[in-house]
Amino acid sequence: MAHTYIITRGVKLYVDQLIADLQARFLPFKYKGEDKVIRLGVRPIQLWELTYPKDCRDIVHTTLFGKNKGEPLHKKHSKFVWAIRKALGVDPISDYNLVDKELCLIKDNVDITAIGEKDDEDLLQKESEKTEGI
C-alpha cells in the first residue's frame, strides 16, 4: 500500500465534504492474482487550536490529557511534536491541576497529543495603549 500525506485548510463544511468524497472512492488492485477493489483509506492526522477562558484551563486540560499530560502515544513522535510547537511559536503544556470534573466528551479510539499553548495578548490593554495619548 502507498501512503500520501496532505494538509487541508478551508471552511470545515467543505473540508468535511472533501474527506467524505475521498472515503467514498474505490480503487482497483490485484489480490492473489484476482482483480479486486478497495476503499481509499482516509486516516486523519489533525492539528486543532482550541480557545477558551483562562480560568477553564485546568478542566480543559484534564478532559483532553488527563494524568498523562498529553504525551505522545509513541516516544518517536516527540521530535515531531517539538517541531510543530516551534513552527507555531507556542510553549509546551505547562503543569495544570487535575480536577474532579471533566467536560462530557467521547474520546474512545482517539489519541490526543498535546502540542503546546499560549496566552492571548491582552487586547483591552492594547486598545487603551492606542488611545492613551489622545
Salient structural properties:
alpha+beta, 9% strand, 134 residues, 31% helix
Spatial arrangement of strands, main beta sheet? 1-2
- Percent helix range: 25-40%
Low-confidence stretches: none
Rg calc: 21 Å
* Major pleated sheet: 2 strands, antiparallel
Strand content: 5-15%
Mean pLDDT: 87
Q: What form results from the Cα inertia axes?
A: elongated
Q: What oligomeric state best describes the polypeptide chains here?
A: single chain
Summarize the structure.
This protein is of the alpha+beta class and 134 residues long.
Give a written overview of the molecule:
It is a single chain. The protein is α+β, with helices and mostly antiparallel strands. It folds into two domains: 1-45, no CATH class; 47-134, no CATH class. Helices cover 31% and strands 9% of the residues. The chain contains four helices and two strands. It has helices at 12-23, 57-65, 78-88, 123-131, and strands at 26-31, 34-39. Strands 1-2 form a two-stranded antiparallel sheet. The longest helix is centred in the first third of the chain and has 12 residues, at 12-23. It is elongated, with a radius of gyration of 21 Å. The termini are far apart.
